[in-house]
Amino acid sequence: MKKCSIVTTAAFLLSVSGPAAAMPDDISTLNSLSLLRKKEPPAVLYTMLPADSSVLPRAAEPLQEEPPSASSAAPEKVPALAAYGRAFLPDIGDGTKRIFSRDNASLALVGFGITGLSFAADHRVQNYFQEKKPMENTANIGGNIGKGYYHIGVGMVLLGAGELWDDKKMADTGIVALEALLVNGIVTESLKYAISRDRPNGENDMSFPSGHASSTATLAASVSEMYDWDLRIAVPLYMVTAFVGASRIQANEHHLSDVLAGTTIGTIVGVSFAKSRKEKNAPGGIQDFAITPLADDGHRGIVLTWRF
Fold first, then answer.
1. Is residue 302 part of a domain?
2. Which of 76, 183, 260, 301 is deepest in the core (most CB within 10 A)?
3. Is there a domain that residue 71 lies in?
4. 252 φψ region: left (φ > 0), alpha (ψ -120 to 50), beta (else)
5. Tell me: the pLDDT tens digits for 218-266?
6. How far apart are CA 163 and CA 157, in angstroms?
């Protein structure tokens, strides 16, 4: 196949009087030449380019704009307290339903399995704490930390701080903690009355499960799940939960199995409510239960929607 050369020509008005053959070979030197007078004809220059076009300079590729990063997106708007209030009952229904989801099966199996095994060690652990008294000086501190109204206060602080600092995740965490603590309290107290297990000190029959342990674990699990189990958050919270549980054994208020059962229940409830909230916040998230006000000509009421 014959190779053909690419020829480029350029016409310039030159101020020199010599023939075209005397023109310089390098086109770049033409910039130094002065313009030709109008009477003189233009000189035509040409240069031979290589036959292989692959060695020719390529046109610059257009710059491609990078897609906007997620960090440049506008932050989510924090709902007003009134909006959280209107959604409180629907959220309670959705979170309660989430407790019985398959996601919690493995957690319930492990937690309640360990609780069942711990019944055999209840008396041995109780005797150790009462004889050795490893937490005699700190049992009251743990008992106070485990009281439910302190946990409610933490939830309210998170909700208020999120509203004040325009941090939706923090505000959501606060309302999730409050919702989960309410349901956990109902579940725990119902089990206490249903099972009626005597306390180690014989004070009453409200031993199983431990309310202090379940409430503390509910707060720990809901906050940890909302922050994707960040170890900087989850580890300290569950260390507090363990401290509260051990203090209740030292105070002779609960058996080991009471504490483990309460921790399991609280963790399941807290995780369930946090996951329910995260699913609603996800794109396309919907509510399983909703209450919608209805106002029409001469009619007032509410519409209940339950997806199951």
1. no
2. 260
3. no
4. left
5. 999 999 999 999 999 999 999 999 999 999 999 999 999 999 999 999 9
6. 10
Question: Is residue 47 in some structural domain?
Answer: no
What b/e string do you get for 291-306 counting C-beta neighbours within 10 Å, with b at 16 or more? beeeeeeeeeeeeeee
103-138: pLDDT as tens digits: 999 999 999 999 999 999 999 999 999 999 999 999
Dump the DSSP string for 132-162: H-TTTTTHHHHHHHT-HHHHHHHHHHHHHHH
Please report the DSSP string for the chain in residue order: -----EEEEEEE--S--S-GGGS-S-GGGGGGSPPPPTTSPPEEEEEEEPS-GGGSPPPPPPPPPPPPPGGGSPPPPPPPHHHHHHHHHHHHHHHHHHHTSGGGHHHHHHHHHHHHHHGGGHHHHHHHHHHH-TTTTTHHHHHHHT-HHHHHHHHHHHHHHHHHTT-HHHHHHHHHHHHHHHHHHHHHHHHHHHH-PPPTTSS-S--SS-HHHHHHHHHHHHHHHHTTT-HHHHHHHHHHHHHHHHHHHHTTS--HHHHHHHHHHHHHHHHHHHHHHHHHHSTT---SEEEEEEEETTEEEEEEEE--
Q: Can you give the pTM of this predicted structure? A: 0.71
Structure tokens at 97: 């339903």
Question: 143: buried, middle or exposed (CB in 10 Å: 19+, 13-18, 0-12)?
Answer: middle
Nearest to 178 by CA among 55, 273, 36: 273
* Cis before 209? omega within 30: yes
Beta bridge partners of 11: 44
Please give the tally of structural domains in the chain: 1
Inside any domain, residue 2: no
Domain membership of residue 170 as a residue range: 79-291
